[in-house]
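Thread: "does anyone have the structure for this chain?"

Original post by V.I.:
We have the sequence but no experimental structure in hand. Need at least a predicted one for the grant figures.
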Amino acid sequence: MAVKKYGKATKACRICGTHDRLIKKYGLYVCGRCFREVGPKLGFKKYN
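Reply from O.Q.:
Generated one for you, tokens below.
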């Protein structure tokens, strides 16, 4: 199978491997679900 070079399937979450809700900002490459768990450990704070 050929390696994808563009599109949604090119990047995946580093923790769980999903392609949904991927946060690429700051080079995180973590999905939204994993970010809820790991975010505070990385120094992000919840304001809402």
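V.I.: this helps a lot. The chain has a mean pLDDT of 93.
O.Q.: and Strands lie at 22-23, 30-31.
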